[in-house]
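Give me the 3D structure for Biotin carboxyl carrier protein of acetyl-CoA carboxylase.
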Amino acid sequence: MDIKQIQELIKFVSRSGVNEVSLEQENFKITIKTNQNPVYVNAAVPVAAPVVAAPVAPVAAPAQAAPAAAAATEDTSKYITIKSPMIGTFYRSASPDKPSFVNVGDEIGTGKVVCIIEAMKLFNEIESEVSGRIVKILVDNASPVEYDQPLFLVEPI
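Predicted structure for Biotin carboxyl carrier protein of acetyl-CoA carboxylase (157 residues):
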């Protein structure tokens, strides 16, 4: 699926009022979620053009998601998890020559930018919704992340 088809699908989802659309094809899966109130529709979304997808991204993401999930199972009951609000590429700093937004041991407050997630050439600053101290960074810099994937463990203060 090329970028134009993905953009058309996103526009369709936002106009239709549905809350979530999942499309799965050979070596390619995409889920688009909105913050709208759910409207339940049972309909197939036809794709007009043939789809040619490179299996690189779908193969790499699950391989990196598994270690993050395993790390999160270590006695983390007293920690709050900051999760990825979207699919994209995780960056710890605004550019390679700039310092990281946060490091292990840093205290953060609500609204503090903790990372950037790049999705379709848009760089989205991810702000903390909790206050506390960064205990662990669960994702490597410039790694692909999935929706709802744990990024940071925070000890509440």
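Residues 38-63, 68-72 have pLDDT under 50 and may be disordered. Let me know if you want a second pass.
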